[in-house]
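User: structure tokens for this one?
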Amino acid sequence: MGTPQAAELAAVLTAAAASVEPEGSAGAEKLAVTGLPADRIGALAFENGIRLVYTLWPLITVALTVLPVRRRDV
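Assistant:
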């Protein structure tokens, strides 16, 4: 999993008891995460406004922007 906000995501996931290690070359902003299921990682990223980038092998890259939901008082 990659993100332009790797440091922020690593801090959030570590606080949630995941093990987080950089993956690939320096500056690649990819993380290897263990200890949390993918849906929980996505939920934590969403809750914290962190953008995740998924690569679908071999040719397609899909970028998902995760933005906090703002609720209006009715």
